[in-house]
Design brief:
29% of the residues lie in helices and 27% in strands. It is of the alpha+beta class. The chain has 3 domains: 89 residues, RNA polymerase II/Efflux pump adaptor protein, barrel-sandwich hybrid domain (OB fold (Dihydrolipoamide Acetyltransferase, E2P)); 80 residues, no CATH class; 220 residues, Chloramphenicol Acetyltransferase (2-Layer Sandwich). Strands 11, 14, 17, 18, 19, 20 and 21 form a 7-stranded mixed β-sheet that branches. A hairpin with a 2-residue loop joins strand 20 and strand 21. The chain is elongated, with a radius of gyration of 27 Å. The N and C termini lie far apart (67 Å).
Length: 408
């Protein structure tokens, strides 16, 4: 019995998706609920699981193809008994070629019989086609003849050229000057669109301050082992910043608000976005009702979102909403930055690298671990005085962490 696997219903406002990776190829066994293919929208990457145990009969789309909800992706041959999955597949003299490899063979007018497959059961992978094209002088000539008009391919005159980054895309060579043109991913394109919208549609200003991190560091060092032992999660700095931000948002509700047409919407809840660098670009998943969370719950929530982002497991619910955001460029060494707000939010807090700096305390110069803070805000609804006082509130809470516990 053949089973059709179709594109699932897509989230609201998402019209189509791009096939990123086929997890299984034609002829391979797959179990129920095992991931078959990854689909990328302009918001998240969706995994499409197998509806039943079986064998992949045919892939109807190639990696890079754009598909819509309900469109046929693949056909599976159902396996009724569990032990049938352990039986060897019937052999065939027909060469098995993956969709991406087949597409590349057709584009470059190659003979599939000349290409040796390195995949399972001898199937031809895209990498096999690329290797064949690089090694064969005949193919090099064919590529020059049939290269797309927008790319110029010339003779390679140096045998000691450095290899370009291992990124899929069209490669252009000119002596030792190598370029590669790579299509922008759906997520990256959406990020670019939103950032441009923020700059064009909001009056963004940034105010700065500095915070002495020694009190938080002392508290963290004192309790981190007990904290980890009790809650099975590390006590980091982010939970302190989330708590301090929520206290400041309560005092200055305009920073937690957003503009909708001619109205200002004041949110009575605190959904905090945390910027995370994922393999597909910057994403800002959201901690829901963060004001009701303990430090341990915040740390667990952030760790869970980071893990999802790294493994492309974030769902639409993880990404939508958010009333205020935090971004920590300090983990990459940034000393100072002007973060861009995440529409329709009106504010974002930028954290930076902790650096030992000389400070004057009680008339004496002492060395303290200092972090620069940056608050970017929408000046249409947040006045400069509010923004400055908001950031000072965060500074005061972090320099006296007891304030976070007693709410003063």
């Amino acid at each position: 019995m053949l089973i059709e696997v179709k594109v699932p219903g897509l989230p609201e406002s998402v019209s189509d998706a791009t096939i990123v990776t086929w997890r299984k190829q034609s002829g391979e066994r797959i179990k129920r609920d095992e991931s078959l293919v990854d689909l990328e929208t302009d918001k998240v990457v969706l995994e499409v699981p197998a509806p039943a145990d079986g064998v992949v009969s045919q892939l109807h789309q190639a990696e890079g193809d754009v598909v819509k909800a309900g469109q046929l992706l693949a056909t599976l041959k159902e396996v009724a008994a569990e032990n049938e999955l352990e039986k060897p597949l019937t052999t065939s003299t027909e060469k098995i070629i993956t969709p991406s490899a087949s597409k590349m063979i057709a584009e470059n007018k190659l003979n599939a019989d000349d290409i040796v497959g390195s995949g399972k059961d001898g199937r031809v992978l895209k990498e096999d086609v690329q290797a064949f094209m690089q090694q064969s002088p005949v193919v090099e000539s064919a590529v020059k003849t049939h290269a797309p008009a927008q790319y110029e391919v010339v003779e390679q005159v140096s045998t000691e050229q450095k290899s370009p980054p291992d990124v899929p895309g069209e490669q252009m060579e000119n002596a030792d000057r190598i370029e590669k043109r790579v299509p922008m991913t759906r997520l990256r394109a959406r990020i670019a669109e939103r950032l441009m919208d923020a700059q064009h549609n909001a009056a963004i200003l940034t105010t700065f301050n500095e915070v002495n991190m020694q009190p938080v560091m002392d508290l963290r060092n004192k309790y981190k082992d007990l904290f980890a032992g009790k809650y099975d999660v590390k006590l980091g700095f982010m939970s302190f910043f989330v708590k301090a931000s929520i206290e400041a948002l309560k005092r200055f509700p305009a920073v937690n608000a957003s503009i909708d047409g001619d109205d200002i919407v004041y949110h009575g809840f605190f959904d905090i976005g945390v910027a995370v660098a994922s393999p597909r670009g910057l994403v800002v998943p959201v901690l829901r009702n963060a004001d009701q969370m303990s430090l341990a719950e915040i740390e667990r929530g952030i760790a869970d979102l980071v893990d999802k982002a790294k493994n492309n497991k974030l769902g639409i619910d993880d990404m939508t909403g958010g009333t205020f955001s935090l971004t920590n460029g300090g983990v990459f060494g940034s000393m100072l930055s002007t973060p861009i707000i995440n529409p329709p939010q009106s504010g974002i807090l930028g954290m930076h690298k902790i650096q030992q700096r000389p400070m004057v305390e009680s008339g004496e110069i002492v060395v303290q671990p200092i972090m620069y803070l940056a608050l970017s805000y929408d000046h249409r609804i947040i006045d400069g005085a509010e923004a400055v006082q908001f950031l000072v509130t965060i500074k005061e809470a972090l320099e006296d962490p007891a304030r976070i516990l007693v709410g003063v």
